[in-house]
Amino acid sequence: MSAPRTLTPRVDSELWARFGRSAAAVDEGHWMRTSDVEPWLRERARAHRLRVRRVPFEDLDGWSFQEGTGNLSHRSGRFFTVEGLRTTGGPGSADAREQPVIHQPEVGILGILAKEFDGVLHFLMQAKAEPGNPEPVQLSPTVQATRSNYTGAHGGSRVRYLDHFIRTGGGRVLVDTLQSEHGEWFYRKSNRNVMVETSGHVEADDDFCWLTLGQIGALLRRDLLVNMDSRSVLAGAPMPGAEPGALCSDVALHSWLATHRAGSDMRSGLVPLAGLRGWQRGPASIESTSRGGFRVVAVQVEAEKREVPGWSQPLVEPTEHGLSAFLLRRFDGVPHLLAHARTEGGLTDVVELAPTVQGVPEEPSARGRTPFLDEVLSGASERTLFDARHSEEGGRFLNAVSRYAVVEAGPDTASRTPPPGYLWVTPGQLGDLVRQGRYVNVQARTLMSMLATGAVAL
Question: Which N-terminal residues, if any, form the signal peptide (predicted)?
Fold first, then answer.
C-alpha cells in the first residue's frame, strides 16, 4: 500500500496552458464580446459622472502644509504625504538633486479575480474612475485599494470583493508579488500584485465584467482603456511557450542585475518639502524654477460611484508625455528584449530592469542623446510590433500619459553586444523576474502585460 501523498508540486504545469487558452480567446468571452467593452465603459463613465477641478492648496479639505517641514499631509495621518527627496550620485551626475515626491509607506492591494467559464479562464475587471485619468473610466483590477482605503480610513463604503484577497482560503493564488511603483515620483512605494482563482459563484456588480486574457490584450492595443494597475498585475501572468535558450543564463542575468545594484553609488532620502533647491511653491502649484518635468497641483473631486462621494487631494502632473519602448531582436530564432538597468531615487533597491528607452523624448544636449532613442522614434511601421498610449496611475498623477512601443531592431541599430547597462533578455526570463517582485519596473511591466495577454505577437 502506497504512502499517502503529502507533497504539493512546486510548479503547476497546467497553469501556463490555461493562461494560453485564455490569451487565445480574443473576440468574445463568456460575458461579452470584445467590441462591446468600449461602449460599456462609456456607459459606465456616464453613470460615474466624475468631476475634477483644480483648486488652490488652501481649498484642500483635510490637507495642509506642516509647520516647519512644509510637508503636505492629511489631518488623519493616513493616505500619503508630499515631501522632499534628495538624491546624490547615480549615472552621469555628481551633484545632489532635490524634488517633491509622494511618500506612501503602506502597501496597497491590486487584485484580479479569476474564474473559469466554459473551460477558459476569465478575469473580473472593474470600470473604475480615477481623477487623474484623461479618460476617467478605465479597466481596473477587481480590487484596487490602498491600505488606508480598505481599512476604512476614508469613512466610505467597504471595498467590494476584498475578502478574496485578504482572507485565508479565499481562492487559489495564481500570482502574488510585491512590486514597485514609479521610482521618479514615489519614494519606496510597493503594492501587492495578486491574482486569485475562485470556483464559487461571484455576482458581478454593474461596474464589473468578466473578460478573457485575449480580450484584455486586444483592448491594450487601444489608447487609454486599461489602467496602469491592471497592466502591472497582468504582467505577472505566465506566458505559454518554451524558450530553447537565451543569450545569457538565468544565473548570469541575476548576477548582472545584482552587480548593478551593489555597484550603484546613488543615495536618496527624504528631506523637508519646504526650501527644496530649485523649486517654488505658489498658491496652486509647486513647480521647478528651471525646466522641470512635473509639478504638484491640487484638485477637488466629485464622484458618485466611489467609496466616498467627494474629496480633495494633491496630484503630481507631468509637463510632457513620456515614452517607454523595448527594442526586440531574434537570436537563433528566439526573441530577446533589450533591457536597461535603470537607476531611480525612489526605488527601494535603487536599480530595476526598465525598457530600452524610458523618459521624455528630448533634444540633443551636451551629454548626448538617450541611447537607442533614435532607433525607437524612427521605427518603421512594419518593424513596430506594438504602439499605443496609456495613462499612468490616475489616483496620484494628473494627465500622465506615455507612448508604449515594441520595435523590432536589426544588427545595425542594436548589436548583439549592447553598451554597459543594457542586456538582451528573453520575454520568459523577464516574466520570471516579474513574478519574483521588485526586479522589473512599472514601465517595463506595462510592456510585459502586452506580451502576457497576446497584444504583441512574437
Answer: none
Measured over the CA atoms of residue 414, residue 218, residue 135 and residue 236, the dihedral's sign is negative
User: What kind of architecture, by CATH, is found in domain 15-458?
Assistant: Alpha-Beta Complex (3.90)
User: For 67-88, what is each residue's pLDDT tens digit?
Assistant: 999 999 999 988 899 999 999 9
Vertex 31: Cα angle to 26 and 32 (nearest 5): 60
Distance separating alpha carbons of residues 229 and 392, to the nearest angstrom: 8
Give the integer Cα–Cα distance in Å for 378 and 182: 27
Backbone angles phi, psi at 223, to 5 degrees: -70, 135
pTM for the model stands at 0.94
**Angle (nearest 5°) at CA 125 between 123 and 126:** 160
Tell me how far apart the alpha carbons of residues 219 and 252 are, in angstroms, rounded to a whole number. 36
Q: What angle do CA 33, 34, 38 make, to 5 degrees?
A: 115
- Over the stretch 392-445, which tens digit does the pLDDT of each residue have? 999 999 999 999 999 999 888 899 999 999 999 999 999 999 999 999 999 999
Q: By C-alpha distance, which of 255, 456, 418, 440 is closest to 331?
A: 418
Residue tagged 548589436 (cell numbers) = 415
Q: Which residue has the cell 467590494?
A: 160
Amino acid at 251: V
Distance (Å, whole) CA 187 – CA 232:
18
| Distances in whole angstroms, Cα of residue 359 to Cα of each of 120, 167, 176, 182 | 38, 39, 28, 12
Contacts of 329 (CB under 8 A, 6+ apart): 335, 336, 338, 408, 409, 410, 411, 414, 424
